[in-house]
Amino acid sequence: MTEPSRKGAAVGRRIGIGLMYGFWKPRVLGAWRVPATGPVILAVNHAHNIDGPMLMGTAPRPVHFLIKKEAFVGPLGAFLEGIGQLKVDRDSTDRAAIGSALAVLEHGGVLGIFPEGTRGEGDFASLRAGLAYFAVRSGAPIVPVAVLGSTDAPGRLVKGLPRLRSRVDVVFGDPFEAGDGSGRRTRKALDEATFRIQERLTDHLKNARRLTGR
User: Fold this and answer.
1) pLDDT (0 to 100) of residue 200
2) Domain-located, residue 15
3) Which structural domain, as residue segments, surrounds residue 104?
4) Phi-psi region of 74 (alpha: psi -120 to 50; beta: other; left: phi over 0)
5) Within its chain, how far is the Cα of 168 from the centroid?
6) Is there a contact between 168 and 188 (Cβ–Cβ < 8 Å)?
């Protein structure tokens, strides 16, 4: 398995810090909950176009995100690959993307996933099985992350983005194990893990909204 560039992801983190703190006002809560070393999966709700870059700029460690292949077009595609991000075909079993994601975890890195698969309500109501597979297969803990920022406030210049210089809350939750301890990777085991993950992510989002008043 080929590991995406760690140095590239570190550069991406620095770029994310500059852009996100330059255009918005991130308020980061609970970043200390992300394990300082070892493999970890950040499971992020997805309601805004800036959710990925926002996590890259606010997470305490460099993140390799699984990003839809449609984003890897022209210069942007080369840039995303250069900063260690992973291209994935969401309409098929993308073995190359799976191998690269597992390599990130195998080498003790941070994998970022939008478990809902695409931008929507950002409420974790519909989860794909990929998150459970990576968590059970690697044994890496999952850290739930809620990105909360209004996209319907006045002064918004671009659809799907919070208003410039507005506050965006990024709330990290407690890490948890997705598996049941048996090491099973059967379809039934993954379905059960997906159910457990959805419960934990939904609870975290509710707590994050209470905490931030969003």
Assistant:
1) 94
2) yes
3) 6-212
4) left
5) 16
6) no
Q: In this structure, is residue 108 part of a structural domain?
A: yes
Among 80, 57, 60, 48, which Cα is nearest to 146's?
48
Give the whole-angstrom CA distance, residue 139 versus residue 162: 35
3-state secondary structure of 74: helix
Q: Which pLDDT score, from 0 to 100, does residue 130 have?
A: 84
pTM for this one? Answer: 0.90
DSSP codes, 168-188: EEEEE---B--S-SS---SHH
pLDDT at 120: 46
Looking at residue 165, its amino acid is R
**Angle of the 51-58 helix axis to the 6-23 helix axis, nearest 10:** 110
What is the spatial distance between Cα 61 and Cα 57, in angstroms, rounded to a whole number? 9
Number of domains in the chain: 1
- Beta strand 167-172 pairing with 142-148: antiparallel
Place of tokens 């941070």: 110
Q: With b meaning 16 or more CB within 10 Å and e meaning fewer, what string describes 74-101?
A: eeebeebbebbbbbbeeeeebeebbebb
The token pair at 107 is 């080498």
Query: Per-residue pLDDT tens for 91-124?
Result: 777 889 989 999 999 999 999 999 876 554 545 5
Q: How many residues does the chain have?
A: 214
- Residue 47's pLDDT is what? 76
CB atoms within 10 A of CB 180: 12
